[in-house]
Amino acid sequence: MRRLIAFGLVLGACVSTPAPSRTPSAAPATASASATPSAVAASPNPSPTPTQAQQNIRLGIVLTDPSPPFVIRLRTESDATPFATRNGLTPTVSPDGTRLAYWRRDAGAPATRDTLRVLDLFDGNETEITALNDLISNGVAWRDDGGGLLYAARATSTAGIGADPPPAFTMVSTYAFAARQIVEVKKLEAARFYPLAWSLAAHVVSGFDSGEGGVRKIYRFKEDGATAGDTPAQEKLQEVTDASKDATLILTQYSFFTGGRSFSGVRTFSAIDPSPIAEHQAGDAVLIRARFRPATRDVLALVRSGDPPRYALEIWSGPGLATVARVWTGPAASLAGGELLARTDGKAAYVRTDPSGSTGSLWQIVDLGSGSATSLPLQGPVAPGPWSSFYISDEGIAKLRKP
Fold first, then answer.
1. How far is Cα of residue 298 from the mean position of the Cα atoms in its chain?
2. pLDDT in tens, 4-26
3. CA–CA separation, 88 vs 65, rounded Å?
4. 326 falls within a domain
C-alpha cells in the first residue's frame, strides 16, 4: 500500500542563515497525523559532513531516559553539564551527524499526541514534521542521504491477549524533505515495526518486529509498499543492535547456551533484501555489545575475555568479519555487563564498563587508532541509554542552551 498525502504549508518562524557550506533549510510548516495523516511539514535539507572551516564544531552526546518523563539531554563530549534538554523519545541522529529527529512528548501529555520533530544542531532551529492523533509513536530512522525520515506509529489497541500482544496495527510512513510529502508505505496488521533504515538508491525501507522472545521478523518494503523480502525469526536472531549509515546493512547479535558451553556473536543482514551477509562468533569471549563503526562495514565489539575475565574492545572486519583486531583491554569484568556507542566520526568509541568491586559504572572514550582511553566526564546519575553521538556548532549550542 502506498498512499501519497496531500498537504498545505503553514509558514512558521524564520530560519536563521546556516553556515555558508550547508544547504539552506526549507521554510518550516506544521502538520497533523492520525491513522491517515492530512498534512506535512518542511524540514532542513541534507547537509554535508561538517568541517572546521564552516564553524567551530564540537562532538556531542545524546543521553536518553528510558522511562517517564522521557527527558533527552544534549551535552558535549568534554562537558558533562547538558546544554539543552527536550521532552521526548527515540532521538535519532542524521547520517552526517548534524541533525536530530525525535518524537516530542511533553511532560504529562498522553502518549497519543506525540509530534515528530527535527532539531538542527548547527543553527539551533527546530521544525515540526507531523503530529499524531490517537496513535503511539514507534521510532524514527533517517534516509541514507539525510533527505527524509522513516517513521512508525502504532494503534492504542492490541491484537489478541497474552503477556505481550502486538498492536492492532502499525502504520509505516516516510517523509521526504524536498517534496514535503508524507507517504503511507504500509499498514501492518497485528504487528510491530521499529524503523531501521531507508535506502534512496534501492528505494527500500527496513525495520523489525521485536517482543517477548526476541526478534520476530525483519521487514523490508519497497517505497510503494511492495515486499522486498522479510527475514523470519531464527535462533541466532535475538536482538537488532544497529543499522549502517548508508542503509545497506543490519547488525544483530545473539547468545545461547548449549552442550555445557555459551556462544555469542553477530550476524549482519542486507537492509535491502533478505540476504544474510556475514556471521562472526566471539569464540571463547562473551559478546556484550556490537555496533557498526561509522562509514565502514566493520563491527565494534565489546567483549568479556580471558581468565580472569577482562573487558576488551575489538574491531571485526573483512570477509565474514573474520579479521579481529583488539584495540583496547579494560578492567576486570566479573559480570558481562556494559555498553558501547560508536562516536559519529568513527575515530573513537564510548565504552561503559561495570568493573569488579566498583561502586558504579565507568564510561571511557577509547581511541580506535591508538587504543588509549580517557574518562568521559559525567555529572550525577547517568541515563542508561540508548545514547547517540553528533556534531554541534557553537552557534547551535548558544541557541539551544538552557536559560
1. 17
2. 443 332 223 333 333 333 443 34
3. 9
4. no
Element containing residue 256 per DSSP (H, E): strand 249-258
| For the chain, the helix, strand and coil percentages under 3-state DSSP, each to the nearest 5 | 5, 50, 50
Which residues, in sequence order, are CB contacts of 129 under 8 Å at separation 6+?
A: 31, 40, 41, 43, 101, 115, 116, 117, 118, 149, 175
Tens of pLDDT, residues 39-88: 334 444 444 444 444 569 999 999 998 888 899 999 999 999 999 999 99
Contact 60, 121 (CB under 8 A): yes
Count of domains for the chain = 1
Dist CA 250 CA 237 (whole Å): 11
Q: What is the CATH number of the domain that holds 47?
A: 2.120.10
Q: Assess contact for 135 and 153: CB atoms under 8 A.
A: yes
Instruction: Please give the DSSP secondary-structure letter assigned to residue 167.
Output: B
Q: Has residue 17 been placed in a domain?
A: yes
SS3 111: helix
Segments forming the whole domain that contains residue 82: 1-229
- The predicted model scores a pTM of 0.87
DSSP annotation of 320 reads G
Cα–Cα distance, 300 to 316 (Å, whole number): 6
Q: Output the CA–CA distances (angstroms, integers) from residue 327 to 247, 269, 283, 320, 353, in the order listed.
A: 26, 25, 17, 19, 16
d(CA 52, CA 326): 31
Q: Is residue 122 part of a domain?
A: yes
* pLDDT tens digits, one per residue of 123-182: 999 999 999 999 999 999 999 999 999 999 999 999 988 788 999 999 999 999 999 999
Report how far residue 68's alpha carbon sits from residue 326's, in angstroms, rounded to the nearest whole number.
38
In a domain, residue 30? The reply is yes
